[in-house]
Amino acid sequence: MSAAQAPALDSLETVAGRIRSHVVDMCAGPEGGHLGGAFSATEVLTALYFSVMNVDPERPDDPDRDRFLLSKGHAAVALYATLAERGFLPAAELATYGRPGSRLMGHPVRAVPGVELPTGSLGHGLALACGFALAHRYAGRDARSFVLLGDGELQEGSVWEAAIAAASLGLDRLVAVVDRNGLQLTGSTERIAPMEPLADRWRAFGWSVREADGHDADGLAEHLSAAPWEPGRPSVLIARTVKGHGLPFLAGRAAGHYVTLSPRNHARATAALRTTGEAAR
Fold first, then answer.
1. How much of the chain is in helix, strand and coil states, percent to nearest 5?
2. How many CA atoms within 13 Å lie on the side-chain side of 188?
3. What is the pLDDT of residue 115?
4. Given 56, 143, 151, 265, which residue has the most CB atoms within 10 angstroms?
5. 20: pLDDT confidence band, cut at 50, 70 and 90?
6. Distance separating alpha carbons of residues 153 and 45, to the nearest angstrom
7. How many domains does the chain have?
8. How far apart are CA 94 and CA 92, in angstroms?
9. What's the chain's Rg over C-alpha atoms?
10. The domain containing residue 124 runs over which residues?
């Protein structure tokens, strides 16, 4: 079952709205969660799991599946919500997030169907995805490997070592997405460690580069479905996003990096999402 055969009763925008609702509910639990970065990545995950990747919830270990790694593993709540919407785990299980005995931990672990590897020690995901892409090549498989990185994570030298390796090996079935929301835990990425012009940096490392609105799920799906964009070159999509997108009281604020929503703010967030969904219709 390919991504194109995934349930298509709702638009990608509608699915993204449901994923955000799940994330808000999880972040209102006792452990809270990385809401800001989860919301900036929602459309990327929606496009991948509901339009782009060849995955099957009934066969999560299919050797011919596309692989996905959430390198910014602190946004696990968004991945769990996406996997639940896609059918990899019951949506009701999301209520156990962060609770004793739950397999839904603060960072993804292999106990969760659809999670390929534990991630979240920032800077490792791209190298791991290179390994998947190389393994597919040796096995003669046409599968693609996707990895979602945070922009603050690009301050890790291991990211650029992996970028060099991917280009030198010609891993054109490797696709990276950078969640370019411009914020990290302690503030603006450009204040802490400037990285613009980011697209030119990736090109200098031998990658094929595109940029897109990271909250346009249909546009993201179009770009990602077309990868590889150049034969013999890995692809990177710089998704321009807003941390906490969709929540007026948190959007674009570093304060939204990690939150435990109070009952009042849980209600505010739910109302904001409802309003956004009604406007979209």
1. 45, 10, 40
2. 5
3. 98
4. 151
5. very high
6. 18
7. 1
8. 5
9. 18
10. 3-280
